Amino acid sequence: MELAGLREDVAHLKATFELSERRACGLIGIAVSTYRYRGFPADDGLRQKLIELAREKPRYGYRRLHVLLARDGEVVNHKRVWRVYREAGLSVKRRKRKRLVRIGRPLEAATQINEEWAIDFASDALATGRSIRVFSVVDACTRQCLALEADTSFASRRVTRVLERAVSEYGWPRRIRCDNGPELTSRHFLAWAIERQIELLHIQPGRPMQNGRVESFNGKLRDECLNVSWFRNLFDARRKVSAWRREYNEERPHSALAYQTPAAFARQQAALSFALKREIVAGEDARQGFPSAPSAALTVALSRERPLPGYRAKESFELTPE
After folding, report:
1. Per-domain residue ranges of the chain
2. What is the CB neighbour count within 10 angstroms for residue 89?
3. Which of 76, 147, 230, 235 is within CB 3.0–4.6 Å of 166 for a Cys-Cys bond?
4. What mean pLDDT is predicted for residues 166-191?
5. What's the CA gap between 318 and 316, in Å, rounded?
6. CB 226 within 8 A of CB 124
7. Which tens digits make up the pLDDT trace of 18-33?
8. What's the DSSP call for residue 156?
9. For residue 293, is pLDDT > 60?
10. At a CB cut-off of 8 Å and minimum separation 6, what does 18 contact?
11. What's domain 116-251's architecture?
């Protein structure tokens, strides 16, 4: 006999012979909990409604769908909605954020011109409220600003055009240090660097001080130019930014260069490099790579510069191997 028939027999005994529920269930042979159990209504209608709502709003979770059901007059517990929602396979898939992994390259002391360039962007706005970006290129050794370009946007091709102009004036860099912006990680920019055999040093995300030289330059740019200037239009911004670049390179003393201007320090470094190359070619000690007896002009020039790797400067302006 089915469960429904057994329940009817229990009800008949209770009504006819006035037996208790427990006694009647014992005579029929079923548990009291089985007799009292009432099945839940079928979830087919609720499941169909949830599927229809999920098709209309595919990014809504079960809580929002429960609110929409209540608006339609459907009185249902949120836990039941969650159970049917999960059984129907309607759970919203969360989009995992892709995290860029970079190996950090700490800042190293640059001792030669064009050994490393640092590039970055700064942001500002015109008088009309339109935002602009300023692209800066700085030599890590001389702290000279090689390019400072203002525009409303910078695609990767525009970035490489600015770098090409800087290269035509100052020469090719060995490596370029930059962040992970879309302009500096695009296929065009990467192919441009590989074709010209330039090493790209991308800093770790969230570590701007791994590109600290250009960050320091951008701080000076913002403090001395962007924050004190009112740009009427883009042409006015380009004119003022270009004027500040000339002042920075040729007039402004730089504390990291013993308060020389970057342009003067660059000329001094170029003269020193030229003299050193002449001494290397003319010197007899070719195995060590440095002349054993440098000329008087070279020793005086070296005394004004930072000590070269592998040598220490004496007070008498002589260069002695360590």
Report:
1. 3-36, 45-87, 116-251, 262-321
2. 8
3. 147
4. 94
5. 6
6. yes
7. 889 999 999 999 999 9
8. H
9. no
10. none
11. 2-Layer Sandwich (3.30)
